[in-house]
Write a structure and sequence with these properties.
alpha/beta; Zinc Finger, Delta Prime, domain 3; Rossmann fold; five-stranded parallel sheet; 322 residues; Helicase, Ruva Protein, domain 3; 57% helix; 16 helices; two-stranded parallel ribbon; globular; 10% strand; 7 strands
């Protein structure tokens, strides 16, 4: 029986630091640490899907080689958030003696911002006790959620969103590796729906490729469950022009026919509002309306009612200024 192919997020994950794209400055500093076989505790901070975990694993692989399993321990802090894990599994590994050629061990805590406050304070104490033989690398989407005593013991590396050029290079690499035909519009669609998240881009691309080897713009938007930018901008423009019913029809198409959620539509509205060719005052009205609708939806209000109220608020503001 043939085993299924591995997810492309793993298949095309960089195995060395040199293969990581879009983070040249951080990679060069990490490579210097690897060369010296010594480094401080570190926090890798930044949005999801931009290479934080990959960088930590590649660093350990280059430092330890075949001894990696004996000197590198990876834990996902969002699965094990409590103080017992820090006092147990983390502390036990931290105090063991490394049998690798490099005497320093690495404990990598992925999504460390999910750790409870008590667990973080226990981790701070563990970092102090075993500072001579163990280094900690923490990955976090929000570094501000990590307590100050831990931040002060670490160097913080802030990963940035990948550029469009970085993502184009990656798409070309995957397309060549999987023998896919990806036209220019499909490339732009992949970049748009991924929002700088390379993992999301890879998952969408693989999902589309399961159906056909020729990737089109339409198939990308369908698989990603995202509206086309033109559809969002048309809806907002109708509201700005005071054509509430037309805007409402566009909204109905997005929510009912395409099945998009209210929060997804608002996220795209925020993105498209910034580039609409309209007066700056109208943009301000749109931003305020989006913010209010988003708050109410997050608090549990009906999505459809709030989105229609947003369009009505924008249309009323445009009408009053005439």
């Amino acid at each position: 029986m043939k085993l299924p192919d591995m997810p492309w997020t793993e298949k095309y994950r960089p195995s060395t630091l040199d293969e990581i794209i879009g983070q040249k400055q951080i990679v060069s500093r990490v490579k210097a640490f690897v060369k010296n076989k010594s480094f401080p505790n570190m926090i890798f901070a930044g949005p999801a899907g931009i290479g934080k975990t990959t960088c930590a694993i590649a660093m350990a692989r280059e430092m330890y080689g075949n001894d990696m399993s004996a000197a590198f321990k990876e834990l996902n802090a969002s699965d094990a958030r409590g103080i017992d894990v820090i006092r147990g599994e983390v502390k036990e590994f931290a105090k063991t003696v490394s049998i690798a050629k490099v005497p320093i061990k690495i404990i990598f805590l992925d999504e460390a911002d999910a750790l409870t406050s008590d667990a973080q304070h226990a981790l701070r104490r563990t970092m102090e006790q075993f500072s001579s033989e163990t280094r900690f690398v923490l990955s976090a989407n929000y570094a501000s959620k990590i307590i100050e005593p831990i931040q002060s013991r670490c160097i913080v590396f802030r990963f940035r969103h990948l550029t469009e050029d970085d993502m184009r290079v990656y798409i070309k690499r995957v397309a060549e590796g999987e023998e896919l035909e990806v036209d220019d519009k499909a490339v732009e669609a992949l970049i748009y729906v991924s929002d700088g998240d390379l993992r999301k881009l890879t998952n969408v691309l693989q999902s589309v490729a399961l159906e056909k080897r020729s990737i089109s713009e339409n198939s990308v938007y369908e698989i990603a469950a995202r509206a086309r930018p033109k559809e969002i901008s048309t809806m907002l423009k109708c509201a700005v022009d005071g054509a509430f019913e037309k805007g409402r029809t566009e909204l109905n198409n997005l929510m009912v026919k395409q099945g998009l959620s209210g929060e997804d539509i608002l996220t795209q509205c925020y993105k498209e509002a910034q580039i609409l060719p309209i007066d700056e005052r109208n943009k301000l009205d749109i931003m305020v309306a989006i913010g209010e609708a988003n708050f109410r939806i997050v608090e549990g209000a009906n999505e459809r009612i709030q989105l229609e109220a947003m369009l009505a608020q924008i249309a009323l503001g445009a009408t009053k200024r005439r």
